[in-house]
Design goal:
Length: about 350
């Protein structure tokens, strides 16, 4: 999976178009209206999350983030004051923050959602990236991976899915039976699916994966769109009660992450926050630079990026960034080039 420097063309109207797939990221007529009709309404939102404490939305094809910005906006206007939204999205060829900002500038009415999204725009490193939206009581986990690998590596269960992976004729890999089976396996009972395509292969694929499929009147120039649903009802779940034992860096970080997800843990610690280990009021985080693309290298890169993000958000913290590692021979020169890539 490569990231060519220019994966986009821009139409004269200022809309992004993929050079890799030869398709548009959203409707050239009115992308936001299409998002609302095909994905939000198509998944029965906001009615489907009424009365729910937590709700999870999955998306195949993060692109410019337009669908997710519209989702965040709707969530903030309609969900209960304590409810939490978990978003999982997949993107093999991420746009840069500047490209997304250019594409999303067409919808100033979404600025309260697109602003924080662009400010926290995930990096391009392969793996999972978390972005928190505290003002929306929401978190986004973006998998920068090919779709099948992303779905296989995600442990969640979505209540709604936005299938938005370019036209099936131009990008069949995003709609294969393996992918649709994984979507079903990562769905909660009663999960809904919305998509713009009514291609026969997609309808049959969703049915084979266990969904009941319906064609609905489409949006704009598209005559029809698709809604699909799994049998069953999402189980009512009590908010979990969690105790974290030990307020060292790992325990305190786990407590913080739980709070972001809407769980208020009890933190048990005999002395004080971070007094164990060296007890120094400073943290030194160094990246483990690994030329491989295996799971360990990926985890280390993700953890380093996440730590740098989080420490950067602590008010008053002094964050000194920068590690310089010098090559000590020709072997290192080649290795460092591979890491940088
Ligand atoms: C129509 S665009 C998504 C538009 C997006 N939902 C938005 O709101 O802007 C489809 C996206 O799917 C991504 N994509 C295509 N094939 C993929 C694959 N095999 N795995 C993961 N992502 C893929 C593309 O890079 C592109 O960003």
């Amino acid at each position: 999976m490569s990231h060519p420097a220019d994966i986009l063309d821009w139409t004269p109207e200022g809309q992004p178009r993929s050079r890799l797939y030869g398709d548009v990221y959203f409707s050239t007529e009115d992308g936001l209206a299409e998002t609302e009709a095909v994905f939000l309404k198509g998944c029965g939102l906001p009615e489907a999350w009424a009365g729910r404490d937590r709700f999870c939305v999955g998306e195949l094809g993060f692109g410019s983030g337009l669908n997710i910005a519209a989702l965040l906006d709707l969530w903030r206007r309609t969900a209960g004051p304590e409810a939490r939204l978990h978003i999982f999205s997949v993107e093999a060829h991420p746009l840069s923050a500047a490209e997304a900002a250019r594409a999303l500038a067409a919808w100033p009415r979404l600025a309260e959602a697109t602003g924080p999204m662009i400010a926290g725009w995930p990096g391009r490193a392969r793996g999972f990236h978390r972005v928190e939206f505290p003002e929306f009581r929401a978190v986004l986990d973006l998998a920068v991976l090919d779709v099948a690998e992303a779905l296989a590596g995600w442990g969640g269960r979505a209540d709604a899915w936005f299938l938005d992976g370019f036209s099936p004729a131009l990008n069949p890999a995003m709609w294969g039976q393996d992918v649709l089976d994984l979507v079903a396996a990562r769905s909660a009972p009663g999960a809904r699916v919305g998509t713009f395509t009514v291609a026969g292969a997609v309808r049959r694929g969703l049915q084979a994966a266990g969904f009941e499929v319906d064609k609905r009147p489409g949006h704009g120039r598209k005559r029809e769109r698709l809604e699909a649903r799994l049998a069953g009802e999402a189980p009512a779940r009590a908010r979990p009660r969690v105790a974290v034992i030990g307020a060292g860096i790992a325990g305190a970080s786990a407590a913080r992450a739980l709070r972001v997800l809407g769980v208020d843990p009890v933190l048990v610690e005999a002395e004080g926050l971070g007094v164990g280990a060296s007890g120094n009021p400073a943290a030194l985080v160094t990246p483990r630079l690994d030329a491989g693309l295996g799971p360990v290298a990926r985890l280390a890169a993700q953890a380093f990026g996440r730590a740098a993000d989080l420490y950067g958000q602590v008010a008053g913290a002094v964050v000194a960034a920068g590690v310089r590692q010098l090559a000590s021979g020709e072997r290192d020169t080649g290795r460092f080039a591979r890491i940088a890539e």
